[in-house]
Write a structure and sequence with these properties.
Cytochrome Bc1 Complex, Chain D, domain 2; two-stranded antiparallel sheet; 12 helices; disordered N terminus
């Protein structure tokens, strides 16, 4: 059998080169997300992907509300994609953790920040799936929706084995989200939300205030809240709060400057506001504020967050000295 060395062969070589170039371009187009996944996979393999220790096997099979095969599948995915940040023991101390801010979640506490249940209640599978599929903005937690749904569910099942709180398969009760009463009057929602934020809820105790002293007092009157007579020096600043649960400082965001972890969709915002943020100073507002005020707060926070990176946001911060 002989090999062609003439023009036809050279054309075939050129076609092969072009195909190779297109493949290289497609690989390059994957961008930072592909590179990040590659880094995590490399770290995961370095950490001993596929190896099974006796301690981990005993722990993972304590969760008997799902099949052993699901847990094995979840562990294999975890050791490939997650161990580099969250660590082999799920404690947030993976090999990449020291380079990340915020640090990866410590699953052993059993407490997750962004859920649909009341503070102190267990997270629901749907909450963990939502975070897994969407990621958390402004952090190293990327969306993992490229994984098939069964693998994502298996990952959730395995992650829960790091905490004894989920041993019996219990979940917290979902806080229902009421219909949005400001749907056809968003400006009214923003106005009411501004009053609730600076009045009844006193959100400036952690987040910055976004109005003058006089307007804060007016907001207190409008929401039947105590009227402040003096104001702290850090009224227009983010107040760092140490979380005993997570073992790190938490920065309640300046909404005009920071990306919000769960985004600024209205329904996501009202879920966070009514449920609170697990393990932080952000309380559950469901049962304290009525549904109309929860939605109003969501409208106002979204309005502030849409100012991020705009001249209006910069002007507001400059006028009030927000830092």
């Amino acid at each position: 059998m002989t090999h062609r060395t003439g023009p036809l062969s050279r054309r075939g070589q050129r076609r092969g080169q072009r195909r190779g170039l297109r493949r290289a371009e497609r690989r390059h187009a994957v961008g930072w997300h592909g590179a990040w996944i590659g880094l995590l996979v490399a770290v995961g393999l370095a950490a001993g992907c596929g190896e099974r220790t006796t301690d981990m096997d005993v722990q993972m099979f304590k969760a008997r509300t799902v099949s052993e095969q699901t847990l094995i599948r979840g562990r294999e995915a975890y050791m490939l994609y997650c161990v580099g940040c969250h660590g082999e023991n799920g404690d947030g101390n993976g090999k990449a953790a020291e380079f990340l801010d915020p640090r990866p979640r410590n699953f052993t506490t059993g407490i997750f920040k962004f859920v649909s249940t009341s503070a102190g209640d267990l997270a629901r599978d749907e909450d963990l799936l939502r975070t897994l599929e969407r990621g958390l903005h402004g952090s190293s937690m990327s969306p993992w929706n490229l994984l098939d749904i069964e693998t994502r569910k298996a990952l959730v099942a395995y992650v829960k084995t790091f905490s004894d709180f989920y041993e019996d398969g219990e979940e917290g009760d979902r806080l229902a989200i009421a219909p949005n009463p400001w749907k056809y009057d968003p400006a009214g929602g923003v106005s009411r939300g501004r009053a609730v934020y600076h009045g009844l809820a006193m959100c400036y105790k952690c987040h910055p205030a976004y109005v003058s002293h006089e307007e804060i007092q007016d907001a207190a009157r409008a929401t039947d809240a105590p009227i402040p007579r003096a104001f702290a020096e850090d009224l227009y600043a983010e107040k760092i709060k140490f979380s005993e649960t997570h073992g790190v400082d938490i920065r309640p965001p300046d909404f005009t400057r920071r990306m919000l972890r769960t985004g600024n969709d209205l329904e996501d915002l009202v879920r966070v506001i009514q449920s609170g943020v697990g393990g932080t100073a952000m309380p559950t507002w469901s049962g304290v504020l009525d549904p109309a005020d929860l939605w109003a707060m969501a409208h106002y926070v979204r309005e502030l967050n849409l100012m991020r990176g705009t001249p209006d946001g910069e002007a507001l911060r400059n006028d009030l000295g927000i830092r």
